[in-house]
Amino acid sequence: MGLDVMVTLGYMKRTIYDADHESFRGSVAAFLDREVKPNLEEHAANKALPREFWLGAGAQGFLGLEIPEAYGGSEAGDYRFNAVLTEELNKVNAALGSCVGIHADITAPYLVELGTEEQKQRWLPGVASGEILLAIGMTEPSGGSDLAALKTTAVRDGDDWVINGSKTFITNGYSADLVITAVRTSPEKGARGITLFAIPSDAPGFSRGRKLDKVGQDESDTAELFFTDVRLGDDHIIGDLDGGFIHMMQKLPQERLGCAISNTAHATQILLETLEYTKERQAFGAPIGTFQHNKFLLADLFTRIEVTQAFIDQCVIAHDSGDLTSVDAAKAKWWSSQIQNEVIDHCVQLHGGYGFMNEYRVARAWRDARVSKIWAGSNEIMKELIGRDLGL
């Protein structure tokens, strides 16, 4: 059951998608039903999506929505296709959405928009096909959301740059073939002395720590990365030398909008499944959904979801036309993650003891959702950005 079911049930009519988008949605859903859902337990046990998944998604054109056809992509040119893909992935589970989102929706645009012609030809065809898996290395053990406080450095040595440092909490980090990494190249310039490097995983001096043992999102491979005297030339710099901080700030609105789409689709799916559960689960001789408290609670939860969805849809339209502001992206990110967590927490309660069992989707969704209030900038950071925009 998904957002399309919500429409047919009459809870909300969405108007931002046309027949082409819905046809694409059907293709994504069919692929996930066929290739992913039967293997979710294996993915969770391995704490990673297998390369077969990435190659399959690439063959379907799902990984190249941001990549021009000249480099092997499908170049949708319409962010609503990204949104449809994100929604369908998160109906299955949030980890799937985060892994694909990092690769295709967040990291690939750095190469497309900032890469040289040679870099595009070298990497983008593999990115689109799933042969080159991407990750983005921003967060450091001591830095958290403070991107300006990076300690990983790149020091010029002849024609090379020598990179030393580490990153943590990197989604796709254990499997990635190429990591777009923020490093400090001019310490005296502060935030304006950061550069982005594309670091191949087979570069001498690149190493990975263990797959991190997270509270949720078991299917997502998350790792620590270490750089010990990694030598790269200028041909691995992405964008402008010392321009990395500005590049990251320009790309963060899309990342945060992607999070908002994910959060809302994830919560909606679990809420719809919970509604069905309350119609079937009996207590005291009646479905539990007919009890006044539960009926009122469900009315409240569906209203929260629909109001949130209406705002997120408007943000999608704004982003597609180039009008989404960083402040509105921050609003969408923090609000949707808050609603997601509140809604799914209530869904656990409505499931009773079964809601606390990992074999039930609602329990896993509850664990998976918690990180959305932390990553892509914590909710507190989002509120700080909004407050500054208010002149405070």
UniProtKB/TrEMBL annotation:
The Acyl-CoA oxidase/dehydrogenase middle domain is annotated at 135-230
Q: Which cofactor does it need?
A: FAD
Q: PROSITE patterns of this UniProt entry?
A: ACYL_COA_DH_1, ACYL_COA_DH_2
Name-wise, this protein is Acyl-CoA dehydrogenase family protein
Q: Which residues form the Acyl-CoA dehydrogenase/oxidase N-terminal domain?
A: 19-131
Q: According to its UniProt record, which protein family does this protein belong to? A: Belongs to the acyl-CoA dehydrogenase family.
All copies of domain Acyl-CoA dehydrogenase/oxidase C-terminal, residue ranges: 243-390
Keyword Flavoprotein carried by entry: yes
Organism of this sequence: Nocardioides dubius
Which InterPro entries does the UniProt entry name for this protein?
Answer: Acyl-CoA_DH_CS, Acyl-CoA_Oxase/DH_mid-dom, Acyl-CoA_Oxase/DH_mid-dom_sf, AcylCo_DH-like_C, AcylCo_DH/oxidase_C, AcylCoA_DH/ox_N, AcylCoA_DH/ox_N_sf, AcylCoA_DH/oxidase_NM_dom_sf
Q: Which PANTHER family match?
A: ACYL-COA DEHYDROGENASE, ISOVALERYL-COA DEHYDROGENASE, MITOCHONDRIAL-RELATED
Q: Which UniProt keywords apply?
A: FAD, Flavoprotein, Oxidoreductase
